[in-house]
Structure formats: C-alpha cells, structure tokens
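We modelled the chain as a single entity of 144 amino acids. Its sequence is:
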Amino acid sequence: MELLKDTEKKLANKFLFITTVGAIITFIISIIVFYFLFSNQSFENMLLDLLNFAKNNPFIASIMVSLFLLFASIIIIIMTYILIGREIIEPLDKVIFHIEEISKGNLENEIKVNRKDELGVLQDSIERLRISLTILMKKLEEKE
C-alpha cells in the first residue's frame, strides 16, 4: 500500500470529470433546443413562455422535464460506460493477459507501464514480479 501513497489517484477524478461534462453538455443542448422552439423571442421571453407553458400545462411540462432528465441520464451513462471501458477494463484485460502468461511460465512478454494511477502501480508491480521470476529461473537453470 505504500506505493499507492505516491500514486496520482486519477480514476475517481476522471469519473467526476466525465459525468460533469455530460451534465453540462446535456444542459447546453437543452437550452439550444428550447431556444429554437421559441426562437422568435428574446431569451427572457422564452423563459417566461416556458414558465407560463408549465403553469398552463403541468402534465405536458412534467413529461418534457422527465424526458429531458432521461436524456441527460442516458448521455451521462453512455459517457461513463465509455470511460470505464477505456480507462479501466482495457488495461485490466492487458494485466490479466500478462498474469495468465506468467502463470503458464511465459516470462518473455514485458508489461509496458504507461500510467501513473492505481492501475499503473498494478502494472509496475506485475512487471517487477515478472523480472524477479525471470532472474530466479535463470539462477535455477545455472545451478542445474
């Protein structure tokens, strides 16, 4: 665990960033859509019209808000899914592949460490394990 103290903990920050960006993008898209719906008016008049519409048609307004929230949630979920796949699942798949190769006795595949987060620490630890096992195997071969 001492290695993690010096590690840049970026995974949680990436999740926070991607969900925030998704929410901002969804908010901007909704403003643009509403603006084009009421584009013949100023922005203030558009907001007043939206409020009046909500007062006069609460059921339809609640459906519109619900659809907007559904749309926003879907965008955030998709962006998070892509981030998890790219930033966590793919590197873990590579680590699993190397661990399986080491367990089969194949110590030739070098693990490239190109991260400075928690997964980079894991990759580095496995690479050091591979190197240690390679040295140990050479010593055993020399004794025989």
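As a brief sanity check on the tokenised model: The chain has one domain: 8-143. The chain is about 80% helix and 0% strand.
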